[in-house]
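In practice, a research group might receive sequence data for several interacting partners and want a quick structural hypothesis before committing to experiments. The following worked case mirrors that situation: the sequences arrive first, and a predicted assembly follows.
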Amino acid sequence: MKLDPAIRDQVLATVPSLRAFAISLSGNVDRADDLVQETLLRALAHIDSFQPGTNMPAWLFTILRNLFRSEYRKRRREVEDADGRFAETLKSHPEQTGRVEFNEFRAALAKLPSDQREALILVGASGFSYEDAAAICGCAVGTIKSRVNRARTRLSDLLAIDNVDDFGPDRATRAVLAGGGRN
Amino acid sequence: MTTGKTVNLQPPPATENKADEPEAMGKTATHRKAEVRLGREVQARIGQQLRGMYDDVVNQGVPKHIDDLVRRLSDQDDGVA
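A structural hypothesis for the assembly, expressed as tokens:
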């Protein structure tokens, strides 16, 4: 049986966001593309378990996250290293107000525990509801809210933003230095 | 970029803050209240940075090898081996 082109197009439409999520999880573009490819192979092999009319992005994100997590357990050491590389793997955004500021941001994001970073990205960047994010991560809605809250607090802390006008690199650098002693 | 997404980026109610956050310790309630208000702007800024980074990848679209893969598998009889 051939795949319904409408379903196929839904899958394809999700790929860009799925890649962004995979990069944020794995910290590595090549590995992220492998992860996306593996996710799509599994999804298409089990497309019958997808109910048309339900949330295709959430379904694919769930598969990708589960794949990543099971691999993570196997290759823990390698993935830990990925945290350090995360900040370097993404190109800077041309519309960012300042490159230095943006680099500080990426470095701070890379310092978050992976479950907090994942929750923040699902809700704050992928645009999922707390409910969908909870379903994707297989945890309670309250857990997602708590992780997102902690991620935001930690980011503010790392960037030492206590005033929007004071978002400069000097303060951020000081915050990173100050934060280092606490870990 | 849609402003609608900003809804997701509002800071949480103070009651949901966890006590294990380092900065929650040793601060007065008044101080904290002021931080919550200021926090809205800060969180909006963080959200903006986050989406900028994410959308950078999203805007790259579907890589050709992935597009080919999906189309090839979609046309196969009985799905994937």
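Before designing any experiment, note the following. Chain A has two domains: 1-90, 93-183. Chain A touches chain B through 57 residues (CB under 8 Å).
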